[in-house]
Specification:
HIT family, subunit A; Dihydrofolate Reductase, subunit A; 319 residues; five-stranded antiparallel sheet; alpha/beta; eight-stranded mixed sheet
Length: 319
């Protein structure tokens, strides 16, 4: 049984993503330190050697937490109450054994390695720019993260600067529960691990193997890689730009859509079928991808080999 818990980053940055200067934290935010202690209590914390050495001696190792330090020079027999690993992969593997939440707490190189692997970021954005900062958090593609909570803290006797504390959750662009075939589930898992929308044009052909039927400025038209049983044709029309709601589609895209549907009808000599669109959160519309896609479904006729009733689900699965 896989009982691993959340893998998260917790970090404070200035306006330029600085996190340190001279191997120390260059600000005093007592409320943020208290929150750090509360969030990481009874968890596993993973850090690099320099981050470990930057901790005040009385807090080294961090109390009531399992401390894992990544180092190629430290030896475990001289590190009391600390687990020493030689790589992030080894550290995460050991951390999951404890079946506790796991936090990456620095420094810059460890954050960079971990960013693509974590599920959540606890982020304190400090309203300052540290002159001479020499350690930075990696540049983040914020489009793949949703802000779950956000709270403002004013400058005070406890806090040297005002700041905003955010909890960010990595977006998932596919819903694994709605996969209908094993190969589809495997592809969707790979997509979620990459935190990419599979229907955005720059990512589309990483997993999709069927040829394109029609292609214009705004839409890709192709056969569904996992067609419904009982179809002669199961065609997908996908906007090239990321669109999640109907209101996201531009007037120009709608006009192009009308023309391309008519062209498909003639090109494939379709005499009867259904046009279905999924939009919004696929957790609730029965879809697999959080990007508008339109289905042209042409069923087999009664008496044809493989004829079955085709059901297009437009709701969440019953639990």
């Amino acid at each position: 049984m896989n009982n691993k818990r959340e893998l998260s980053i917790i970090v404070a940055v200035d306006r330029n993503l600085a996190i340190g200067k001279g191997n120390i934290i260059p600000w005093k935010l007592k409320t943020d330190i208290a929150r750090f202690k509360e969030i990481t209590d009874d968890s596993v914390v993973i850090m690099g050697r320099k981050t470990y050495e930057s901790l005040p001696t009385k807090y080294r190792p961090l109390p009531n937490r399992i401390n894992i330090v990544i180092s190629r020079t430290f030896k475990s027999d001289i590190m009391e109450d600390v687990i020493v690993c030689r790589s992030l992969n080894e550290a995460i593997k050991k951390a999951y054994v404890f079946q506790k939440n796991v936090f990456i707490i620095g420094g810059a190189s460890v954050y960079k390695q971990a960013l693509s692997r974590v599920d959540k970021i606890y982020l304190s954005e400090i309203n300052t720019e540290i002159d001479g900062a020499d350690s930075f958090f990696p540049v983040v593609d914020w489009n793949v993260w949703n802000v779950e909570t956000s709270e403002y803290f004013a400058k005070s006797e406890k806090d040297e600067f005002d700041y905003v504390f955010k909890v960010l959750i990595k977006k998932t662009f596919t819903v694994l529960d709605n996969a209908r075939e094993a190969s589809q589930f495997e592809a969707m898992t790979r997509i979620n691990n990459r935190s990419e929308c599979p229907f955005c044009v720059e990512n589309f052909f990483k997993e999709h193997k069927n040829p394109v039927i029609l292609d214009d400025k705004h839409w890709i038209v192709t056969k569904n890689q996992w067609p419904y049983n009982g179809t002669n044709y199961h065609i997908l029309l996908i906007p090239k730009q990321h669109r999640e709601k109907i209101s996201d589609i531009t007037h120009e895209e709608f006009c192009a859509l009308e023309n391309i549907i008519c062209e498909i009808e003639k090109k494939l000599d379709i005499e009867s079928g259904s046009l279905c669109m999924r939009f919004g959160n696929p957790k609730f519309n029965g879809g697999t991808v959080n990007h508008i896609h339109i289905h042209i479904i042409v069923p087999k006729k009664p008496g044809d080999e493989g004829f079955v009733d085709i059901k297009f689900r437009v709701s969440a699965k019953k639990k």
